[in-house]
């Protein structure tokens, strides 16, 4: 895929496809899950062909979400390792919130907020899968007691709410920081965007003459 001249590759095509598959699964799971959460929201089940179809398809979408998110972990794990500058960035979060990033510590490809979303979902998605398997009555109903299923259902619901809140923060931040959505829809950002929001990442790319998304390394893995 060709990118506009002078821009920087932030997310590869496979990474973006993986991201949007995960996002689609999450939205479908949210809608189908809410339809089963309370009678007032049952009307959402019409999006899936009714209550029976919703109940049948919901866990399978959950399995796809888990596999898809594992793909994101493989692709983004290295960029989400916590570093010293992340704590310094958090201390200057008041400047980031008001969009005045002068004086904010330089950070790499991802900031602390993005890493929080990544690791929150890395914990919540497997936990949702495990609790979901316990309450997947068609396949595992006979293997667990009703008391265990009730506890699993409670935990599943609480973690689902937590995941939805994390997702809302993620979407809001992506829209709020101008240019971020393009990095996940078209794959690139401008040099000015990279300099303003992820200056350390930008410096590493320039020093190694890399188009992105990661600095070019030699055989020993050093820049």
Q: Briefly, what is this?
A:
By secondary structure, the protein is mostly helical.
Structural description of this entry:
This protein has 223 residues and is mainly α. The protein has one domain (13-98, 112-186): Up-down Bundle (Fumarate Reductase Cytochrome B subunit). Helices cover 65% and strands 3% of the residues. It is built from ten helices and two strands. It has helices spanning 13-37, 51-76, 84-91, 93-97, 112-134, 137-140, 146-176, 180-185, 191-197, 199-207, and strands at 7-9, 188-190. The chain has a two-stranded antiparallel sheet. α2 packs across α5, α5 (112-134) runs antiparallel to α7 and α9 crosses α10. The radius of gyration is 20 Å and the shape is elongated. The model is unreliable at 219-223 (pLDDT under 50).
- Number of spatially distinct domains: 1
Return the structural class: mainly alpha
CATH fold category name? Fumarate Reductase Cytochrome B subunit
- What's the β-strand tally? 2
Please report which band the strand proportion falls in: under 5%, 5-15%, 15-25%, 25-35%, 35-45% or over 45%. under 5%
User: Tell me, what's the shape?
Assistant: elongated
State the CATH class. Mainly Alpha
Order of helices and strands: EHHHHHHHHEHH
Which stretches are low in confidence, meaning pLDDT under 50 for 5 or more residues running? Answer: 219-223
Helix content: 55-70%
Strand adjacency order, main sheet? 1-2
* Total count of helical runs of at least 4 residues: 10
How many angstroms separate the termini? 25 Å
User: Architecture in CATH?
Assistant: Up-down Bundle
Q: How would you sum up the major sheet?
A: 2 strands, antiparallel
User: How confident overall, as mean pLDDT?
Assistant: 92
Radius of gyration: 20 Å
**Could you name the CATH homologous superfamily?**
Transmembrane di-heme cytochromes, Chain C
């Amino acid at each position: 895929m060709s990118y506009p001249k002078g821009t920087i590759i932030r997310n590869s095509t496979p990474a973006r496809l993986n991201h949007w598959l995960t996002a689609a699964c999450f939205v479908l799971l949210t809608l189908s899950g809410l339809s089963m959460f309370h009678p007032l929201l049952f009307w959402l089940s019409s999006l899936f062909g009714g209550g029976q179809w919703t109940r049948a398809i919901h866990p399978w979408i959950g399995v796809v979400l888990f596999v898809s998110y594992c793909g994101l972990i493989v692709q983004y794990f290295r960029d989400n390792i916590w570093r010293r500058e992340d704590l310094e960035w958090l201390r200057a979060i008041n400047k980031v919130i008001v969009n005045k990033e002068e004086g904010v510590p330089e950070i790499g490809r991802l900031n602390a907020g993005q890493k929080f979303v990544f690791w929150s979902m890395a914990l919540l998605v497997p936990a949702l899968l495990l609790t979901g398997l316990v309450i997947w009555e068609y396949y595992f109903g006979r293997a667990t007691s009703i008391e265990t299923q009730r506890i699993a259902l409670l935990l599943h619901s609480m973690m689902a709410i937590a995941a939805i809140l994390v997702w809302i923060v993620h979407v809001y931040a992506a829209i709020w920081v101008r240019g971020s959505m393009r990095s996940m829809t078209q794959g690139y950002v401008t040099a000015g965007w990279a300099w303003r929001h992820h200056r350390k990442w930008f410096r590493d790319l320039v020093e190694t003459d890399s188009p992105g998304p990661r600095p070019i390394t030699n055989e020993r893995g050093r820049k």
